[in-house]
Amino acid sequence: MERLGVPATFLGRDRELSLFLDWLANVQSDAPWILSVHDSEPDPARRGGIGKTWFLRACVSLARQRFPHLAVVQVDFFRVADRDRLVIARRVVERLQAAYPRWQARAFAETLESFASQGYLSSLYPEKDVADIRIRDSLSEALARDTQELLPHLPEKEPQLLLVFDTFELVERSPQVAVLGLGQLFPERYGLPQVKVLLAGRNPLDWQHPTWHGREKEVLDLALPPFSPAEVRLYLARELAELPDSAGAGEANGAAADSEASILAAERQAHSMERLYELTAGRPILVGLACDLLARRLLTLDELVAFPQGRFEEQLVVRINDLERPLNWLILVLAHVYHRLSVPLLSWLLTQVRLTEAGEQVTVEEWLATLRQLSFVRAAGEGDELALHDEMRRLVVHYCWERQDPDRRFRRELSRAVISYYEQQAEQSLAEAEWQASRVELLYHRLTLDLEEGLQWFERLFSPAFLSWRSGFARTLLETVREFDSLLTPPQRWRLRVWEARLLRIEEQPAQARLLLQALQEEADPAWQEAQQGELLYEQARCALQLYRFREAIEAYEQCLQLAQRRGDEERASMLQGQLGYLYRRLGQWEEALHYYYASLAYHQQRGSLAWYANLLNSIGHVYRLQGRVEEALRLCLLGLRVREELWKQGQLDERAVGLSHSTLALIYLEHEELVQAEQHFRRAFECYAHVGYRSGLAATYNRLGQVALLKGQFEEATALFRQAEALVTGFDEEVFINSQYYQGRVAAAQERWEEAVTHLQCACEHARHVQDRAQLATSLVDLMEALSHLGRHQEAQAAWQEARTIAEEEGYRLLLGRGEEVLGNLAYTEGRWEEAIAHYVESCAWMTRHNFLEYQKAQRRLLEHLLALPLASVPEVAQCVREGWRQRGLAERYPELDQACEEVARLLRVPG
Predict the structure, then answer these.
(1) What count of other Cβ atoms lies within 10 Å of the Cβ of residue 459?
(2) Is it the case that residue 527 has pLDDT exceeding 90?
(3) What is the Cα–Cα distance from 327 to 264, expressed in whole angstroms?
(4) Neighbours of 16 (CB within 10 A)
(5) Range among 43-52, 105-114, 444-453, 508-517 rated most confident
(6) What's the CATH code of the domain at 828?
(7) Where are the alpha helices (DSSP H) in 587-674?
(8) What local confidence, expressed as pLDDT, does residue 198 receive?
(9) Global pTM?
(10) Are 271 and 302 found together in one domain?
(11) Which residues contact residue 407 at a Cβ distance below 8 angstroms, ignoring those fewer than 6 apart?
């Protein structure tokens, strides 16, 4: 291919560059819009240093040449500041404005300025994190309005925005840190139709990760191999005008006229090149370092290729110590200051640590300029900040620092100087991204000085970060500590594993967290586990809860409860009792739920929290609702709402809790089909959630309001509400997303659009299976069975019902079993199989008696409606069948209403009972 536009320092990769250009130019609607570049090396431990950053730079140069008006945004996740959605969004806006000068993102700028003026974007207010949902919602909505105005200026058949993400492996577990828009999956399109994303990381994409699950068609995969032998030769030829060979090279030059000597010299050089390729395995990071050392005449090519194969990497890297002063020390300093070295920081270090010999006059700017000439030094941020390539940093720390500073004395001195530099900035108002970057630097150097104190400082940063929306920051902190893993004591390492399990849970990866905790059980000392038993059991319970393994969660929580009670920790025991009440409620075991709820309530009535007291009132009311005890449910929930409102007015509770009370009250009215009151309370809940930015609550309320619209027969409004819920939680809250898909299927079914209903219900089933939510899976399967039956796909319908029934019987979902029998009855009734239909209706009523009396009454009413819609002559006989079926189940004495109703029908038709 023509290499015009490729940087002069770049070589090879012609096939890959050609593939990139073809991919970039293909803007067909079904074309992959993400190009994922990763190491071809199968062993994860050997990945890195393959030249991905060089390749990305070449791709960007080609893209700008081929499409001069293309907006190109480059993000390097190696920089802590780049792991921030707002930083990236700002960069997108800046590049789009530069590419299309007639357009300005005014709404975005005004919204950003509004939040900045309130201090929300300052490090002095870390609790007002820029990832706060309300800020994200406002900014993404403003940017969406702006991009709508940009659309008329964009080319239709060309890429409009190229997003380039480097070092993706650092955020691959939590890529949502780079997404501004709510409900968007990484990578974000920012409302533009033709967006291309070039993504480079060490590892191939994980298709089981929630971000990538089911998205294979959106991605073109490119495994990047090491340099070929030809590319290594080309690289050396370009970088070294004259190879600093041994005496043999000089002899060859002196005998240039002698063709035989020239041939021998060429053969020897070719052999050396081949040997160098074998030694480096074609890894660009090592080839580049070899070139740097050869260019500075620290060794000859003959000496280089004489290094033993097994120790080549070591003997090559340690030669960095032989570079001229102070360059050799600067590289070591660069490796130790962790993420970045700037002019101010280096100037400060020179006043604190001896890096130069007496009389050296080279300026800081000259030193940094010299560093930039090395192949393994990269820009670390805006301006003059530099850093080592991450793989080279690992090599320098391992092979150079350990020899120069075996007792880590000098590194500790450097760390003290770096800490004092950042502590000077403590009172300054920093942008959130800059504040996070400085905290990460400080953490690294505090760990260098004292591991235990560093870990305590880590925990003070980590806990609030992972509990808020800053899971990306929490992940960066954790990975910083992991660099010291080999120095940690076993108990410290085990503590780190527990923190990681917590973070995985927050990152919506409970299965991985669970596996980590299981491994910890096998690895950790029994005495340590005994001391940490309560915390470990609690994390296991939380993971099981997230995985919808309710019985497993109950077992762990009950062990936690026993432990808390033995220790006399009444407050923790009360909290665990509340959790157990919730789990038993989810399983439909209401007596057990009430037992634990009331046990927890007793503590809070005496000495506990008034806020928790209100929570428990609401929860108990929720159970009463499920039991059909409507008046008791309303009374407790109204009391809980009153307490919460008072606490909120006093500033002791956020408004989310008030919204939860309104939502529960609305559900009570909804089940009683008092739609006006239900809608009023749902809308009040929505207002509360909007004020505090409770994203899942907002989406769930969209679904609830959609249910109200569905019951009113307002199908278009219902669909719009369910879609709003879907957009808000896609890739974020699977439970609400599944619910949205389920109800969109219900709307389609209500309009007899059965194919559409099947699509939505199958989507709900797929996602429920993925997150192992058995309740939502069984619920969706019942409705899927009905839709498939209407399409004549009876075998699939039967399979769906069998799976749903198995789950419902195993988990005790009595309401669902009753609902399934009613659906089967409806299908049989429509086809004129009346006796079969009535038998299903009777079975449905039987299940409802085991659920609650209110649902039993509703099912009984529906059965009688179907009975009386039959041809009049057949009603008495069928009524008698109902009575017999009810008596055979032993229900006539405890629930005589159905038997009496059928007897009355027969009597009124003057047929003997």
Answers:
(1) 13
(2) yes
(3) 37
(4) 17
(5) 444-453
(6) 1.25.40
(7) 590-606, 610-627, 630-649, 655-671
(8) 96
(9) 0.68
(10) yes
(11) none
**Alpha-carbon distances, residue 674 vs 157, 311, 635, 757 (angstroms):** 53, 79, 16, 27
How far apart are the two ends of the chain, measured CA to CA in Å? 92
From the CB of residue 488, how many other CB atoms can be counted at a distance below 10 Å? 18
Under 8 Å between Cβ of 775 and 548: yes
Question: Which residue, among 647, 676, 675, has the nearest Cα to 661 in the 3D structure?
Answer: 647
CATH number for the domain that contains residue 200 = 3.40.50
How many CA atoms, within 13 angstroms, populate the side-chain half-sphere of residue 508?
19
Taking every pair of Cα atoms in the chain, the longest distance, rounded to a whole number of angstroms, is 128
- How many other β-carbons are positioned within 10 Å of the β-carbon of residue 223? 14
CA distance 829 to 789: 13
What's the distance, CA 574 to chain centroid?
A: 31
The encoded tokens of residue 281 equal: 């395995």
> Positive or negative, the Cα torsion across 787, 789, 794, 799?
positive
Q: What CATH number does residue 750 fall under? A: 1.25.40.10
Last residue of a domain, one of 405, 424, 443: 424
Return d(Cα 271, Cα 275) in angstroms, integer: 6
Same domain flag for 118 and 244: no
Looking at the fold, whether 857 and 761 belong to one and the same domain comes out as: no
Per-residue pLDDT for 517 more than 80? yes
Residue 368, in any domain of the structure: yes
Dist CA 696 CA 477 (whole Å): 26
Mean pLDDT of the chain: 85
| H or E element that contains 201 | strand 195-201
- Based on the domain organization, do 821 and 902 belong to the same domain? yes
What's the Cα-to-Cα distance from 692 to each of 135, 640, 653, 654, 660, rounded to whole Å?
Answer: 10, 19, 11, 7, 12
Same domain as 390, residue 379:
yes
User: Hey, which of 172-181, 236-245, 358-367, 761-770 has the most confident mean pLDDT?
Assistant: 761-770
Structural domains counted in the chain: 5
Query: Which of 393, 400, 325 is CA-nearest to residue 355?
Result: 325
d(Cα 372, Cα 349) in Å, to the nearest integer?
A: 19
- pLDDT, one tens digit per residue, over 23-68 is 999 999 889 999 999 998 888 877 777 778 888 989 999 999 999 8
pLDDT, one tens digit per residue, over 453-507 is 999 999 988 887 766 556 777 888 898 898 888 889 999 999 999 999 988 887 7
**Any domain includes 185:** yes
Query: Lowest-pLDDT range, 253-267, 588-602, 694-708?
Result: 253-267
Q: What angle do CA 736, 742, 748 make, to 5 degrees?
A: 140
Query: 3-state class of 225 per DSSP?
Result: coil
Percent residues over pLDDT 90 in the chain: 41
How far are the Cα atoms of 13, 59, 235, 464 from residue 18, in angstroms, in the given order?
A: 9, 10, 20, 47
**Cβ atoms of residues 7 and 61 within 8 Å:** yes
Point out the domain boundary residue: 165, 197, 224: 224
Is position 444 within any domain? no
Q: Which domain holds residue 368?
A: 323-424
d(CA 112, CA 129): 13
Structure tokens at 245: 């060979």
Q: Is residue 678 part of a domain?
A: no
Question: How many whole angstroms separate alpha carbon 457 and alpha carbon 447?
Answer: 9
Amino acid at 81: A
- The three-state secondary structure class of 29 is coil
Nearest residue to 23 (alpha-carbon basis) of 36, 40, 35, 38: 35
Residues 190 and 48 in one domain: yes
Give the type of residue at 249: A
Do 830 and 888 lie in one domain? The reply is: yes
Distance CA 839, CA 373 (A): 84
Q: Are residues 182 and 204 in the same domain?
A: yes
DSSP structure class, residue 122 = B
